[in-house]
Amino acid sequence: MGFFERYLTLWVFLCILAGIGLGHFFHGGFQVIGGMEVAQVNLPVAVLIWLMVIPMLLKIDLRALKGVRRHARGVGVTLFVNWAVKPFSMALLGWLFIGWLFRPWLPAEQIESYIAGLIILAAAPCTAMVFVWSHLTEGEPHFTLTQVALNDVIMIFAFAPIVGLLLGLSAISVPWDTLVLSVLLYIVVPLILANLWRRWLLNHEHGYLRLQRVLERMHPVSLAALLATLVLLFGFQGEQIIKQPLIIALLAVPILIQVFFNSGLAYLLNRAVKSPHCVAGPSALIGASNFFELAVATAIVLFGFESGAALATVVGVLIEVPVMLLAVRVVNRSRDWYESRAGVPAHASCCPPGAADPGGH
Fold it and tell me: What are the phi and psi torsion angles at 41 (to 5°)?
C-alpha cells in the first residue's frame, strides 16, 4: 500500500477537523457551493466524484469478463454475498441499531436518513481498493479483475433497484428520477469514459507502460478529490457533529458488523465449495468492502450535503482502511486452516509466485 492509502483513516480524520473548522468560520461560502446545482446535481461534487472514480475504473479491463468461468465457484459466492446478502443485511442492521437500539441518542429527524445512507453504502461493491486488498492476501489476480469487472457491469442494472427497494421498505420516499440520474452520472458515464481511455492508451506502442504512467499520475488526483469532497461534507455537517460527536461512533457499529459478517460468510462459503485460498481471500474482501465514492455521491444527490445519509456514507470511508487491513490479516493467518479442508487446492497451484497482474497495475 502507498503512503496515502495506508494512512487514509488519518487523512479522513484531518479532513473532518478541517471541514468542521472551515464550515464554522466560512459558513456562507459553503452555502454558495451547496447551491451550485443543475437538475439536483451539485456541480463541484460531480467534478470531484469523477476525478475520484474515473482513475479507479481505468484499472478495470472489461474484457476480463470472458474469464468469468475460470473460478466460477468463487465468482458465484462473491455475487451471492455482494448482491443477495450484503445490502439486505445492512438494512437489517440499520433498522436494528439506528432505528431502534441507538434511537434515543440520535436526532429523531435524521434517523431515516442515516438508515438510507447505510443502505446506499452497502449496495455498491468496492472497485478500486479491492486490488490492494487482493494483493495483500496474495490473491489470484485474474479472479480479482474478473470479479470487479463483473460487479461494475451488474451495478449498472442492480444498484438503483436494490437501493429503491430497501429505501421503500424503510418507508423512505424514493426519488427514482434522481436515483437513476445518479447511476448514469456516477456509474455508466465514468465506466464508458474510463474504458475508452484505457483502450486508447493500450492501442499505442508500450500500451501497458503508458497506462501505468497515467494511473500513477492520476492516483494523487483521485485521492485529493476524495479528501476535498470530505472537507465539503464535514463543512456542512460540522455543527451537527460538534453538538453530537457520538453520532459517528454509533453509525460505525452496523458498518463494522456488516464488514465482518459478510467477509466471514464469503470466506466460509468459499471453503465449503473448495475454492482455492487465493480466490477465497479476495472474494471475502470484495464481499465486505464498499464503493464509498459512489455511495457518497449518491447520498449527496438524493438527500443533500447536510443529510444524515451523506454523513453515514462518510463514516464508511473513515473506517474502511483499518477494518479491511484487519480482515486481510485474518485471511492471511488462517490460510493453513483454510487449506486443511480436503479438496482445497494448495495456494501455489492456484496463484504461483510472480503471477502476472492482467490489469496492468
Answer: -105, 120
